[in-house]
Amino acid sequence: MATTDQNRQQWGSSYRLLASEKWKAKSAAMGRAVTQALVDYANPHPGMEVLDLASGTGEPAISLAERVGPQGQVTALDLSADLLAIAAVRGKDRGLQNISFHEADAQKLPFPDQSFDLATSRFGVMFFDDIDKALRELHRVLRPGAKACFAVWDTFEQPYFQSTIGIVVRHVGGPAISPGGQNPFRFAVPGRLSSVLGNAGFSAIEEKVVTLPWPWPGPPEELWEQTKAVSAPFRSLLDRVPTQKWPEINAEVIAAIRTYADNDCIRFEVTVRMVSGTKHSR
Known about the structure:
The protein is α/β, with parallel strands linked by helices. It has a domain at 4-154 and 183-213 and 269-278: 3-Layer(aba) Sandwich (Rossmann fold), CATH 3.40.50.150. Strands 1, 2, 3, 4, 5, 6, 7 and 8 form an eight-stranded mixed sheet that branches. β4, α6 (131-141) and β5 (142-153) form a beta-alpha-beta unit. It has twelve helices and eight strands. The protein has helices spanning 4-11, 14-22, 24-42, 61-68, 81-93, 131-141, 159-162, 165-172, 192-199, 220-230, 235-239, 246-258; strands at 49-53, 73-78, 99-103, 116-122, 142-153, 203-216, 261-262, 265-278. Mean pLDDT is 91; it is low at 6-15.
């Protein structure tokens, strides 16, 4: 498993930051349904104090801040100060004054015990270096009765991944993810994240799989460019592609993506696992 410093370097790398800025509007549109589903699942109330882990460029923290209102407060936390800088601009553009941004490690949360009424993370917990320690820390900073709600990827065997990274794997061979590398599908196995939550002290644990829209408002070529740029866990795979193979791979990927095109939009659906647990008073 990658170390915290390696994670910081990978997620804050220059190519990913440039891509995050370049595609921020379309990436936001792509992830909007997942963000909304997680926010609805977490069910924040006005006035709540919320912690969002691995916030990256700002979601669902920004959407949560809108839901908790001016009497509430959202703390967005991430390892990458550069990604959080993008998030801060997005929050400012939305006129939000009830959201703050903290560069910190989820395994060493810089907050007192019982500081938050709710916690969330969208596509983040899969990449925590020490997930047990991180969830124990999260349990510590939540108040009794508070919920922790997560969205994680279901399996690799779904159209979005099979039409992009899956094609690269078929051409290059070997694993899509290096052994010991960051694995987006770490919690695709039913009950795996639930078990870790239970070990960290959470109870009333729930888990479900939902199918959600994953649209890209643009041509296949754009989507493939964005996918290659931001997919940090697949970087080692992409780096293994021989230069002379790229034209063939690119053509096959773009053709596969195009089968999901509807006018000026690529309309994938993705399956996502929603998991939650509650901190009960002892």
